[in-house]
Specification:
The protein is mainly beta. The chain has strands spanning about 1-5, 10-15, 20-25, 30-35, 45-50, 50-55, 60-70, 75-80, 85-90, 95-100, 105-110, 115-120, 125-130, 135-140.
Length: about 140
């Protein structure tokens, strides 16, 4: 299965290698910039120019959680390897760590001078890596 998102505000899962569309997700009101499967494969996270991060349940075929808190479009998102946390990178110069279980922002990472373009958790750690339009990379201990 391949997961894509685009300017049409939709995410799609595609069967591979046939290329048939298996699922389509509707709900964002602007471009999709990121989409990522939960490590268990049962859910996915998407990020969008509409300033939201959304959690989708594949078995329910719908959005189960909308995470709001960024003031500008969200460029990227990723799951932590434990599956309980999602990270987002935004044009508002911040990144956020979201606790999926409590449905709230756990930490806001501030320090970049321009848009944060991507965020990834290092596998099996509490460290996140961000890249920014300010031409810097930052490593964050998301516990502090």
């Amino acid at each position: 299965i391949v997961l894509t998102g685009g300017d049409d505000h939709l995410w799609k899962t595609w069967g591979f290698p046939d290329g048939n569309i298996l699922l389509t997700g509707r709900g964002h009101t602007d471009w999709l910039s990121g989409c990522c499967f939960r490590p268990s494969g049962t859910q996915l996270v998407t990020s969008s120019g509409d300033t939201t991060v959304r959690i989708w349940d594949l078995s329910r075929r719908g959005c189960i959680l909308i995470l709001r808190g960024h003031s500008r479009g969200v460029h990227g998102c990723s799951w932590h390897s434990c599956g309980d946390f999602v990270a987002s990178a935004s044009m508002d110069c911040t990144s956020k760590i979201w606790d999926v279980n409590s449905e709230r922002c756990r930490y806001t990472l501030r320090g970049h001078k321009e848009s944060v373009n991507s965020i990834e958790f290092l596998p099996f750690s509490s460290t996140a890596l961000t890249s920014s339009a300010d031409k810097t990379l930052s490593l964050w201990d998301v516990r502090t």
